[in-house]
Amino acid sequence: MSNIHTMSVNxxxxxSADAIQKAxxxxxxLPLGCASAAYELWANHMNxxxxxxxxxNRDRFILSGGHGSMLLYSLLHLFGYGNLSKEDLMNFRxxxxxxxxxxxxxxxxxxxxxxxxxGAGMGMAVGMAIAEKHLSSxxxxxxxxxxxxxxxxxxxxxxxxxxxxxEVFSLAGTLGLxxxxxxxxxxxxxxxxxxxxxxxxxxxxxxxxxxFQTITVxxxxxxxxxxxxxxxxxxDTEHPSFITIKTQIGYGxxxxxxxxxxxxxxxxADNVTALKENLGWPSMExxxxxxxxxxxYRKIAEEKAETEAAWNVMFAAYCQEYPDMEELWNAYHDPxxxxxxxxxxxxxxxxxxxxxxxxxxxxxxxxxxxTYMPNLIGGSAxxxxxxxxxxxxxxxxxxxxxSGRNLHFGVRELGMTAIGNGMMLHGGLRTYVATFFVFSxxxxxxxxxxxxxxxxxxxxxxxxxxxxxxxxxxxxxIEQLAMLRAMPNFHVFxxxxxxETEAAWxSALTSKKTPTALVLTRQNLTPMPGxxxxxxxxxxxxxxxxxxPEIILMASGSEVELAVKAKTLLTGNKVRVVSMPCMxxxxxxxxxxxxxxxxxxxxxxxxxxxxSDFGWGKYVGLDGTYVTMTGFGAxxxxxxxxxxxxxxxxxxxEAALSI
Length: 659
Fold this sequence. Notes:
The chain has 3 domains: 3-305, Thiamin diphosphate (ThDP)-binding fold, Pyr/PP domains (Rossmann fold, 3-Layer(aba) Sandwich), CATH 3.40.50; 337-525, Thiamin diphosphate (ThDP)-binding fold, Pyr/PP domains (Rossmann fold); 537-657, Rossmann fold (3-Layer(aba) Sandwich), CATH 3.40.50.920. Helices cover 42% and strands 14% of the residues. A 6-stranded parallel β-sheet has the order 10-9-11-12-14-13, with helices on both faces. A 5-stranded parallel β-sheet has the order 1-2-3-7-6, sandwiched between helices. Strands 16-18-17-19-20 form a 5-stranded mixed β-sheet. Strand 19 (605-612), helix 23 and strand 20 (625-629) form a beta-alpha-beta unit. Helix 5 runs parallel beside helix 7 (163-175). It is elongated, with a radius of gyration of 27 Å. It starts with a helix and ends with a helix.
């Protein structure tokens, strides 16, 4: 290793150690151990341009071990991304800084994904690799590889222990994602000590079983060996690659190297000094980096810019030769693509008078839109026939055919959701994922990341209540609606009929920064005369009375029809029925609008929902009451279960009169 390369690697270590020490908080072990691998990758193998972080054909890098965030921040600073300054590094983990404790997408320029939960980055990397493979099949022409880049992801033992990594890597191998390269920081240390206490499997054999090419680098500081491994990974276009890089956690710090104490606490002032002395660093001054090191990084960045410039020339020629493809490219990358597709779809707001399940109606909407929105792609966790998520005649994405728009995730709900996030983060695609609503539990951690990142992934959750019937309580969601409603920046839409289902899709596909869950029935629902596009406001009056109401019945989904029927039994009372398909959207409306739907003066209120009552309290108030589930469901036909658990017009009317 030449002196300038040694200094450039050690600059990553020193900046990371100093920032963590100043913050008195953080994880120095990974940045110290992985500095060589990261430098070799970013400097010599990865196509990226710090001057244009959003270049469409850049290689993607995801730090799945997000606790090692100072590794990424040091790289971004040294390469000159987004003017991430030395002062920003000094403010590591401080409120309002550009350098939060874990990398956050949209907050720090150059961060491709929010990573915190271990293994999540692995899943999102697989999603990005799927997106690259699909888009290349759509856009590439002979002599014009306009979509041609790699996805790199770095993670450690914790990422490999989490089950999500097995879910996504099993699928990645099945799909032959040859441009996915995983860098495994193998240091055999976790927070509690040696990984041998809980993790003794042969990781490489597992990855071989997943159909990955496996490569080992014995010395994590050998830049040449790391470089050879990366190039060997690139040369196999049929399989994703898994590079085990044997590192020492906390490398360079004599008192901490190879020890669990290097993982998640500052080194200590004396140990930072010892680190710099051991590395032969020219100054003990905190955050000092020699000018020749900055010059080296600037020189590399300039070379990277030339790579993009060459691509830009090629892309301009491509657009000139294939103007139809340029138009398609712009359509794929148009943030308003969903709204424009709906405008073109003349029968989008179709309305029939036939009773149908909202899962079926959702499937019909999806298939009406598929032609007008060619970048719409997605699938289900092995439940497409039940979720109604298959787009007919759009083909299946597979190892053999990456142009297909129907994804088969297998029974992997958590991995599916991470992959969906990754596909959306990649850009150019609008993605949906699907499963039974009760299994939204399995998607929750990655759904939370969707909301946190502002990624408008669409979730299709069918079999929405005890209406599942014969499958019994294991398959009957109760608390899931409340769980998702409790999440910030996440819209939960439970429609009562076709019009509201269309509104749900409209809301989902036009959302810019908020994911949306469509919660849909298995059983048929009657079209409601009063349903309308007002559903886009989240809550609206679907059946009203003359004058000011005395009683307000509120419901969502299949229970809206029951509330309307209950109104007919409440003769002599002024009753308003409010459909509340999406509380989250309703809360975004003006106070004047909310008051017009739910006047504060009307205190006799009933919430009706075949799920938990949690979350309805702000609308029911102190004087209102509930017709909801208070326990788990049971096995039996849906109509009998609704009757057994009291979901009937008579019960709702009685509840209203009891107030």
